[in-house]
Request: fold
Amino acid sequence: MRILSLCLALICLMGTLLCPAEGQNDDFLYMINVGKGDAIVICQDGRYYLIDAGKASAWDRVASALERLGVTELQGVFLTHTDKDHSGGLKKLAKSDIIVRNWYASAFYNCTYDDHPMVKAVGKAGAKVTFLNLGDRVDDWFTVLGPTERDLINEDNNSLVLMFDNGKARVLLAGDMEGSEERSLLNAKTDFTCDIFKVPNHADDDVCLYMKLEALGARLALISTDPYEKPGTPDQTLLKRLKNAGMEVYRTDLSTLGIKVNLEGDFRVDVE
Reply:
């Protein structure tokens, strides 16, 4: 009897060691606190993706977050647009030990091809950039909603707008989309309905000018900014609109490391 009990205990111990802890392999989004900038990790089915890489001076924060999350390989890196607070970390990422399988960027940009920050970052490594257009899909989860046209004046309006959908959660990743791009997507009858809304352009007062926020149906609004770096963000009127639309608002400037959101359907939020 004692031997049987010992065997059962050993089996239970082996099960604990071999099986991952509850929640360890959950699909999640992690918005890294990079100050005024964007760097978002999405984990889906064990694959990791990075949307934007923050500014160059914030790379240590991005690298630290990737290490904490156990990321040694990225299935894809998306650059929403060429502004330095989104693209600055790309060179250091390309030179790091992290394996990047695919590099993606918006097909619309206001610089020459040779000066494109992602092209410059990956060129020495012999990698190539895939430029995404409206309607393109990446793997099973990302769909390109915009831009629909090139804005020759404002690079923010060339932002890659993505919808992530894993069947349990829809995440609208809006880059720095301002009013002009927003209006063009609305005119194209773009479906913005989502569970989680990454508020564009650090929640400045030049975004969400035309969309009815209630129509998004989102439960969570995520904002990446630093009011000391970009005074006036997040815009107080926009914050009220988001809350009045029924969204819980989470901000990186009120976190230390970042914000983690479960994408398994319960949308549990951990502010770290």
